[in-house]
Design goal:
Elements: E1 4-7, H1 17-26, E2 32-37, H2 49-58, E3 63-68, H3 76-81, E4 84-90, H4 97-106, E5 110-115, E6 133-137, H5 152-166, E7 171-175, H6 183-189, E8 193-196, H7 198-201, H8 206-215
Parallel strand pairs: 1-8, 2-3, 3-4, 4-5, 5-6, 6-7, 7-8
The chain binds D-xylitol-5-phosphate and zinc ion (ZN).
């Protein structure tokens, strides 16, 4: 399948949020990536329900909600009601991950688990068949505009091999330091969904950058 592009709203201009949401609507982007940070799980606070609901009112594409929060279970239903199509929880924040994944499905959303850079993909073997997507963090979560951690490529390849056996339809999303420079390598490694904040919103034309990332032929890079 052709890879999907999910612009991260974290890098939008919050004083012109509707303008940036409309830009994504009109672009070739596939999803809105919505980063929720609680200042506890990660050393930053982004935004909460009022802002997410405002995005949902104008968004014409699915909301991919990345919860960087402790104890996400208590908010899953509310995020689903606020318009999340995909809900991502962190492996490191969920002692009862199987139950959490069940709650996401019961709330009517697709279930995704995120892995911090130090967390091995093999830890997901026994839950992989229950997931719709895995988010491989390619920076330490908390901030936009950080540098891509190269070891991520190997993690994606290992995860794709595991998924070929356990869940061939699994989507693999990558988040952090993603841009034109590493799009071909990420897609060749097995990623299907590319999140990008800074690379898109700091570009002279964000919507042209979205199109470039979307249409970059993965065959362009044979360097891995
Ligand atoms: C980081 C967030 C990312 C962030 C990506 O913790 O999860 O979604 O917005 O931003 P860039 O693409 O600028 O690294
Ligand atoms: Zn994110």
């Amino acid at each position: 399948m052709k890879h999907l592009i999910a612009p991260s709203v974290l890098s939008a201009d919050f004083a012109n949020l509707q303008r940036d949401v409309e830009m994504i609507n009109a672009s070739e982007a596939d999803w809105f990536h919505v980063d929720i940070m609680d200042g506890v799980f990660v050393p930053n606070i982004s935004f909460g329900f009022p802002v997410m609901e405002a995005i949902a009112r104008h968004a014409q594409k699915p909301l991919d909600v990345h919860l960087m929060i402790v104890n996400p279970d208590q908010y899953i239903e509310r995020f689903a009601k606020a318009g999340a199509s995909m809900i991502t929880v962190h492996y490191e924040a969920c002692p009862h991950l199987h139950r959490t994944v069940q709650s996401i499905h019961e709330a009517g959303a697709k279930a995704c688990v995120a892995l911090n850079p130090h967390t091995p993909v093999e830890l997901l073997s026994d839950i992989l068949s229950d997931l719709d997507m895995v988010l491989v963090m390619s920076v330490n979560p908390g901030f936009g505009g950080q540098k891509f951690i190269p070891n991520t490529l190997d993690k994606i390849r290992r995860l794709r091999s595991l998924a070929n056996v356990l869940n061939p339809d699994l989507l693999i999303e990558v988040d952090g330091g993603v841009g034109l420079h590493n799009t071909p390598d990420l897609v060749n490694a097995g990623a299907n969904v590319l999140v990008a904040g800074n690379a898109i919103f700091a570009a002279p034309s964000p919507s042209e950058m979205i199109s470039s990332m979307k249409h970059l032929p993965s065959a362009q890079s044979n360097s891995i």
